[in-house]
Amino acid sequence: MMDYICSVGAFFWLPPIFWVTLFLWARFLAYPVALKRRIRMGKNWCYVPEWWSKKPLLRLGTLFFLVILGVLAAFSSAASLFSLFPSVPYWFVFMFLAFLIVVKPLTEFAMNGIYRLQVNAYFLEYKKQSEYYSKLGRPLSEDDLNGHTAWAFRNAMKKAESEKQLLKYLRERSKMEIAAEKERSAYEQA
Looking at the record's lineage, which domain of life comes first (predicted)? Predict the structure, then answer.
């Protein structure tokens, strides 16, 4: 068994490949897991892509591959360290468990990247809706404004997803929100 671990550890280039693949997989394919969790926590305006909602086999495969990547990244990292610094076998188990613990925050961070983009895009839409109804001369209550914003946000997201531009749309909207926030803070400081 230890010979097998040392032979896997000899491929020192495997851990970075697995960790980068795990991060990218979580960021660009498994991120709806974080969005569904946010919806359960009450953030009902989050947009979960249709490919995630309508294809349960794809959803299961994505989650399965995410778990497999996490285990492979942890195992290859522990095996590489064990082959560099050989010691008693229980240290390998300890290192493997330590790397498994690191997998959770890394994937959470990666999956929450899309959520942060959606937050910025949502609040940009919120401000647009608020300004629009203020210019019309009929300011809405907070609940009505939230409803109008969620509806407009979901429609814009569905349109961007149908055009295969969802991430590009989110990035653009997020940059616009950040730029508007910087302008507001500069204006307030002056």
Answer: Bacteria
**Distant-in-sequence, close-in-space partners of 45: CB < 8 Å, separation ≥ 6:** 122, 146, 149, 150, 153, 154
CA gap 10, 14 in Å, rounded: 9
Any idea where the domains of the chain sit in the sequence?
2-189
Asked if 111 and 27 count as a contact pair (C-beta separation under 8 A), the reply is: yes
Total residues belonging to the chain = 190
Higher pLDDT pick, 45 / 32: 32
Q: Give this prediction's pTM.
A: 0.82
DSSP reduced 3-state for 20: helix
- Taking alpha carbons only, the member of 155, 106, 92, 98 closest to residue 129 is 155
Q: Are 34 and 112 in contact (CB under 8 A)?
A: yes
